């Protein structure tokens, strides 16, 4: 399988490494034409305002919605979660708006700009060491969206059909279990 990592801004190489560690082929995606040959896409963490602008500039807004309509899975981490959300608290402009979740940006406050904690993630692990960096959280899941993990009462991972999001950065540890869960999703949707 070929899995793309949106290569506009953010933690790209780390996701590539996780896909390769899991035995699949990873591709950095900089042009919409590349999407045709891919089975799944990852939208990395970084800065969601910047990624959002670049997505529009290079036509990924239309192309990724089309990719999703074909039933191809998309995984968003941190800023990527914000990019996939239908609602961003206090902000008018949404980006892809594919997932029925309402999110709050930079939600863990200044004292906790970045931290690490062990999480229980449904279907993934009971002890996943999660790295949060100026992370958002999910205020609400709606429709088909399901909670996969919470931390201090805040939703930090969710899935809706072929979409997966985490508020933390699973690519920054050497534990590939979240990526393997995404790869399993891609296989399900491919069959
Ligand atoms: N705070 C960033 C944003 O709102 C996301 C941070 C991250 O991806 N590590 O875009």
Explain what you see.
The active site is at 78 (nucleophile), 169 (charge relay system), 171 (charge relay system). The chain is an alpha/beta fold. It has five helices and twelve strands. Strands 2-1-3-4-12-11-10 form a seven-stranded mixed β-sheet. A three-stranded mixed β-sheet has the order 5-6-9. The model has no long low-confidence stretch (mean pLDDT 96). The structure holds glutamine. Glutamine (GLN) is lined by residues 45-48, 78-79, 82, 105-106, 133-134, 136. The site of glutamine has 12 residues, from helix 4.
**What's the count of strands?**
12
How far do the termini sit from each other?
12 Å
Listing every helix as H and every strand as E from the N terminus to the C terminus, the arrangement reads: EHEEHHEHEEEEEEEEH
CATH structural architecture: 3-Layer(aba) Sandwich
Percent strand equals 35-45%
CATH superfamily: Class I glutamine amidotransferase (GATase) domain
Mean pLDDT: 96
Count of individual domains: 1
CATH topology: Rossmann fold
The CATH first-level class comes to Alpha Beta
Largest sheet: 7 strands, mixed
Give every kind of bound small molecule, once each.
glutamine
Instruction: Give the C-alpha Rg.
Output: 15 Å
Number of H- or I-type helical stretches: 5
Strand order of the largest sheet: 2-1-3-4-12-11-10
Approximately how much helix is present in the residues? 25-40%
């Amino acid at each position: 399988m070929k899995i793309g990592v949106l290569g506009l801004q953010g933690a790209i190489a780390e996701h590539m490494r996780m896909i390769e560690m899991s035995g699949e082929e990873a591709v950095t995606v900089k042009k919409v034409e590349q999407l045709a040959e891919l089975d799944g896409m990852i939208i990395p963490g970084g800065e969601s305002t910047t990624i959002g602008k670049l997505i529009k500039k290079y036509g990924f807004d239309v192309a990724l919605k089309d990719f999703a309509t074909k039933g191809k899975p998309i995984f968003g981490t941190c800023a990527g979660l914000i990019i996939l959300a239908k609602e961003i608290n206090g902000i008018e402009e949404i980006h892809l708006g594919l997932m029925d979740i309402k999110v709050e940006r930079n939600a863990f406050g200044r004292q906790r700009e970045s931290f690490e904690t062990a999480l229980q993630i449904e279907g993934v692990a009971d002890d996943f060491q999660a790295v949060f960096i100026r992370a958002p959280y999910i205020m609400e899941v709606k429709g088909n969206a399901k909670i996969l993990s919470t931390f201090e009462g805040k939703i930090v991972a969710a899935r809706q059909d072929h979409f997966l999001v985490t508020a933390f950065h699973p690519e920054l540890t050497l534990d590939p279990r979240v990526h393997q869960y995404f790869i399993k999703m891609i296989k399900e949707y491919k069959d």
